[in-house]
Amino acid sequence: MSEAITGAQIERVVETVRQAAKAEIMPRFRSLETADIKTKSGQHDLVTEADLAAETYLRSALAEVFPDALIVGEESISADPALRGKIGDAPFAIILDPVDGTWNFANALPLFGVILAITVFGRPIFGLLYDPVVDDWIIGDAARQTKLIRDGGQSQALDVSNGGDVSEMTGFIHFYLLPKEKQAQMGVLLPYIGRSWSLRCSCHEYRLIAQGRADFVISGTLNPWDHAAGVLAVEQAGGVARMLDGRDYNAGIETGYLLAAPSEESWEQLCRAFAFLSE
Predict the structure, then answer these.
(1) What's the rounded Cα separation, in Å, for the pair 157 and 145?
(2) How much is the CA Rg of the chain, to the nearest whole Å?
(3) Residue 141, Cα to own-chain centre: how many angstroms?
(4) Is the entire prediction scored with pTM above 0.85?
C-alpha cells in the first residue's frame, strides 16, 4: 500500500468521522445513563457507550476504504493489549481514539474530540483532530501544511507560535499521569513556566498548539491514539515533536517522554527544563 493517501480517501475519512460523531457520539452527549459509563484501569479512566459504538462504526466503515490496513482503536486495544505491539510493524495502520476526552464527555463538558492517525511502520503520515461539537477539523498531512477546515469548506493554513523563554511559554503537562516521584520534581519546576495545565483531551491540546495558541505538551503516557495525529499536525504547522531523549516519534514507542514545541530553540529549552524526567 502507498505511503500517501489520496485526496478522495481523505474526504472519505473526514466524512466517515463526521458521520460517526453524528450517529454515535453527539446523540449520547449529556444523555448518558449511569449504566452507560464504566471504568477501565481506574476511577478516572472511563469508557462510555459512545466510545464503543463510535469505534465499532469507524472500524467497519474504514475497512471498506482501506481493506489492507491494520485498524485499531483505544477500545479494541483495551480489550486486546497485544494489538498495541503491532502498530510499529504495520506497513499501514489506522489508529483511532473514538472519543478523546472521555472524562469530559461523561461529565457533560463540551471539550472532547475524535482523533484518527494513519501510520507507516509507526511513522505518522496523516492525522485528523476533529471537534464534533462545532464540526470543524484539523488535518496534519506529511505532504503539506497543517490546515483547519470548517463545515462549508473554509480552510485556514496553521502556524505554531513563536515560542520564547520557558518563563513565557504556556503548555500542557499531564501532571497526575507522572510517577509520584516525578510529580514532586515537576511541582518545583511549575512556578518557572509561564502557565501550565491539562485539558484532559489530547485532541484539543494539540489543536491549540498547531494553531499557535499554546506552546508545548509533555507526556509520558504514549498511547498512540492520543499522540500520533497531533505530532504530525504540530510538525506540519512548523513545530518540533520528538522524544525527550532525541529519538524521532514513532507510534510503536511505548516508553519515554514525548515533547512537542513550536521551534527547535523552544524544544531545546524545554528539554533542558524537563531533563529530570529521564533521570
Answers:
(1) 7
(2) 18
(3) 14
(4) yes
